[in-house]
Amino acid sequence: MDFMIESMAQYRSEYEKSVKDPEGFWAGIAEKYQWQQKWDKVLEWDFEKPDVKWFINGKLNITENCLDRHLKQRGNKLALIWEPNDPKERFVRYTYRELHEQVCKYANVLKRNGAQKGDRIAIYMPMVPELTVAVLACARIGAIHSVVFAGFSAGALADRINDASAKLVLTSDGLYRGTKEIPVKRVVDEALKECTSVERVIVTERTQWAVNMEEGRDVWLHDELTEVSADCPAEPMDAEDMLFILYTSGSTGKPKGVVHTCGGYMVYAGYSFKNVFQYRESDVYWCTADVGWITGHTYIIYGPLLNGATTMMFEGVPTYPSPGRFWQVCDKHGVTQFYTAPTAIRALMAAGDDHVLSYSLDSLKVLGSVGEPINEEAWSWYHINVGKEKSPIVDTWWQTETGGIMISGIGSASPMKPAHAGYPLPGIQPVLLDADGNEITEHDVEGYLCIKYPWPSILRTTYGDHERCRVVYFSHYKGYYFTGDGAKRDKDGMYRIIGRVDDVINVSGHRFGTAEIEDAINTNKKVAESAVVGYPHEIKGQAIYAYIILKDEPDNEDNLRSEIINSVVEHIGKIAKPEIIQFVPGLPKTRSGKIMRRILRKIAEGDTSNLGDTSTLLDPEVVEVITERAKQLKG
Ligand code: WT7
Questions:
Q1: How confident is the model at residue 251 (pLDDT cuts 50, 70, 90)?
Q2: Which CATH number does the domain housing residue 598 bear?
């Protein structure tokens, strides 16, 4: 699709067009895709309800755009390269023709097992090729996929299955990740004890471990595949039909199901991928995220395939079998674009330069970063040791809710500044607001980051609870989409993201709500009350600090700590483990009973010289007690 911006001058003129005439601009982009029926109207919107519709009455199927459309010219081009956890195991490659065939077959397996357009299908799988095939197979038949990261616990999986009333679950026998082996099917079995909507479980063989197969419910994918043809017409979808649900944490309550729809998401995924990564026909693109997160959805699967790209999928972790793995894989497959997270860069940086300097990395052209602000030290290390000071780094700011990259460099076409995401992509209109909700129009300022005009892949709702979507994103500042982030705009108009301004903690690029973790901690019967905050962590960006009031004196503090950690692992997953647990006699509360997290954050950060105004506290003494003990705990 020829919509690549290749210079700053071109960027400026495209950006201007996109703001002056957004509908004309996006219609021009959308025309490059394959529609079964053209739209009647480009956009209708109202941020107060909220109600946003793009490409109204347009009909399409995203898999025709990802697969069928390429068969003629790129049938023998590689669509997918899969690199296994163990470097000694054989890698797998699918051409566009092969991937198309696999998807059609899997789609027929879904149909054979009762799946229909509009059904929700939960996918809980390792990073194997069948995961990508499964996602696309759902889209092929118009079923709504809900991918759940395979590191979440049975409880978290059950919550997500139930919230969406999923009819099918797609999973595997087991999973390899670094040195870890996880009995995935056992987790599913455990989760399904609490789910009544699930009629079928389709199991991919990965580890060949013996697993329980429940008669009448569970089937093996390889058995099913022998029963189906490779012919599966793509279901016609309305542009505003749901494509997928992806659960993400917010500052309150349980994770919410962010909903993306077929037409707008497709248009934006393809457009942003091509431009940010400056993808060219013979490139080999690698995004190291897991498909369980939005980054994997948009920039492992949909964005690249929409552009006929060769996309890589990696089963393992950056440090297995050694901290040189990423670079070994880049050299092995001739990777041209490499997209990863700051936490991975920091971990590899800490492991020493030798691991990277022994690889040539001369195929690399563009490097990407996503998930959290990248600190200057990590940025420089990435730039010098991986990019050899010649590859641009695109620092891509976006969210599950935005569907695609919003503020970012575009390959080498735009200027870069360490730790700055940069300029908005065409069609994206960010603003900074002050505490009263007024737009700050000058440069060299700081404010709440909001977006004032819809873009095609904005979330449409939160599944089953539209009011929640309105309250969380559209009620703080009337007429704006509120991101939850604070940002600076420098003298050149470039954006620098500061971080969340709500009760969301970003651990290694993964989002957790403080309330969600507190709820998990509070399931322990010995806990009376808890308050959780994030604090800076060298590798993870932020880590979790839990302040806990116990009902009684504990017999053994360390045992109780492990017990509490287990509650979190059970309810959410290992990725949400608190780093530090401090038992406290009380919490700093206002007279109206509100916990003053600001103070707890400062204590966790070790910055207690200026705790700000504590005069409204019910019991100011408790702050001193907590501070003293915190110093000992953090050593
Ligand atoms: C939050 C969204 C979007 C894919 C990964 C995370 C933070 C994301 C950046 C960046 C600074 C970033 C923000 C955002 N974030 N990218 N380049 N610079 N912060 O998706 O789980 O929806 O989290 O991640 O705080 O709001 P997510």
A1: confident
A2: 3.30.300.30
CATH number at 196 reads: 3.40.50.12780
Judgement on whether residues 421 and 557 belong to the same structural domain of the protein: no
Q: Is residue 330 in a domain?
A: no
Tell me which residue has tokens 């995401």.
421
**Residue 609 lies in domain:** 520-634
Kindly report whether the global pTM for this prediction surpasses the value 0.90: yes
Q: Give residue 127 CA to ligand 1 midpoint distance, Å.
A: 21
**Residue 210 contacts residue 240 (beta carbons within 8 Å):** no
Q: Are 597 and 623 in contact (CB under 8 A)?
A: no
CB–CB of 114/199 below 8 Å?
A: yes
Distance 220 CA to ligand 1 centre (A): 36
Tell me how far apart the alpha carbons of residues 423 and 425 are, in angstroms, rounded to a whole number.
Answer: 6
DSSP notation for 350-373: HT-THHHHTS--TT--EEEEESSP
- pLDDT tens column, 125-154: 999 999 999 999 999 999 999 999 999 999
Ligand 1 contacts CB of residue 497 (under 6 A)? yes
Residue 528: inside a domain, yes or no? yes
Distance 370 CA to ligand 1 centre (A): 6
Residues 6+ away with beta carbon under 8 Å from 369:
339, 340, 341, 342, 345, 379, 382, 393, 394, 395, 396
Determine the average pLDDT of the residues in 165-172: 98
For residue range 290-304, list pLDDT tens digits in order. Answer: 999 999 999 999 999
Report whether residue 396 contacts ligand 1, using a CB cutoff of 6 Å.
yes
Omega before 536 within 30 of 0, i.e. cis:
no
